[in-house]
Amino acid sequence: MAENGEPLIPCKTIIWCPTFTPPASNMLPPDDPFSNSLKLVLEANYHPFAIKQPQRAKPVDASSSPLTFYDRHISSKLTLKRIVLLPSIPKSLSGICEHTLQTFTHWNCHTFSSYESALFQVTNGILHDAFQVADYYQTEFGQICQKFASKLLVTPSLQDWHSVFTFQLNKDHRPGEYLTDSWLKVLYDPARDVCLFSQELQKQLNQPVKDRLRDLAMKYPRLADWHMFAMSLTTDRLFQGMFRNPTSGKELPFVWESSQTKTSQQEDHTHQPAEVDEAVLKSMLPKRADSKPEKQTTQLRPKKSSRFPRTRVRLGRPATHSYRLVSPLFLQHGWSQATFDDCSFIIFNCGRWERIGIRHRATQTLYLPGLINPARIQGPHYRKMHLGLHIAIVQDAFARQQISNELTLKEGRKRSIEPSPSNDEEPQPKRQRRTRFPSTTSEIARESRSSCHPAFYPSYVEEKFKTTYDLSECVSLVLGAPLGQGAVGVVHSASLEVGLESGEEFDIYSGLVNKKATKGILTVHGLFEDTEIGALVLVMENGGQTLRQREKERLNAIQAEQVTTPEER
């Protein structure tokens, strides 16, 4: 019971009903002590002077590709297939916010201290590079939204406004960086299995809540992904071109070109990745989201030609141009990162503009609203919309966690009731039986079979290696001076020596080529000579970033067990 005699709100997930209609009047009476503080929280936008470039500051533009991994070698079952405009997303998030706050204020009576209320005022800030955009968002909006989401959904009975969530900024940022990734997560370190709550909050939380938050952090290290861009005119055109042509205003279809590199055959899963049966997303997405997407040819086939047109090579120093930013590259990058982290929400923010994406797994569709201006948005205001966004993110994560736990529990019960063979009888060979998933969890079960999330795969077991080898079992690789640096790393000249005991290296490789057993080896296009400086270049397929380096960046590990050496970059 609370101090005023009212029962405390039960600690459970609050789901917004799609039939709920937000009232036109205020949610609280004017004489309520919580009303003034709540008004300061909800009716807040970006400071108007924060979205203007500082004087004598050169705009940050991408002189080279800000992406270090091109998402073209991913299974077609996991890539983004289409973009759908959904203008109702801000209104839906506002409805989630209002309904949750009404339920909370009906059972509780809370207020803030004068110090906490002063933090609700939005201040000016410098938004120049990507890290400054991310830091301003977290300082002025993220911290408050995380405290409210934690209070409304996790700790409604506690008097203090502590947060169990945090907004993780990329610690490896560089000054003047054009793009940086941030994410919402539980205040828990999955790599070290250490709780990061404050000492006061750890004493107040009961053990079931701690266990639930720990399990949530282990299953979903990232609850939602934010992609922060530097504020510039180039970024404005990039955000405008996510759905429409920035010049003509016409809608653009999402076309994605798959990689033409010959590699190992990918397993074709029987079922499409399915959407989790969860009330929050269903209330926000249209009903047609359950239908299958139209078949579209997104793979461009190269035209075969036996003759190549002659082109005149113009000598001289090439002109320097900024890297041309293309919206599909960043949309696919955000989608693949969300698939890897198993997130349902993807947010793109550049300070001046924002788009909030909802990822529909079954149809591989990304729903985007119109362009959101954080400084001028009205009905709802920006902070109110993002408070609803944080609530929806946490509700979605809790719902998926519950479905996953129910699936694990029911599968464990099935295995426990299987009769064990008697010691006197000879054990019969086990028959391969087909796994039958419960009807309520069939969708999430299908999704787990085609997910690239590390939780669905067994952990790596380090093998024991020999300490001595024969010369015929070793290769010699000598790196020369670096030739250049690109989006994926530094290119070196190198010499490789391979010696077998039989001395038939060339004959063995020739046999492999004749048997077509060289899949997975990057294709070499040939030698090319620069007509200006006479440099000879060996051009081969782009292998991309190493998976070990990508795993290190995902976990944001300071000291990883496996790291990429400087030679691999």
TrEMBL record:
<feature type="compositionally biased region" description="Basic residues">
    <location>
        <begin position="301"/>
        <end position="313"/>
    </location>
</feature>
<feature type="region of interest" description="Disordered">
    <location>
        <begin position="409"/>
        <end position="448"/>
    </location>
</feature>
<protein>
    <submittedName>
        <fullName>Uncharacterized protein</fullName>
    </submittedName>
</protein>
<feature type="region of interest" description="Disordered">
    <location>
        <begin position="285"/>
        <end position="313"/>
    </location>
</feature>
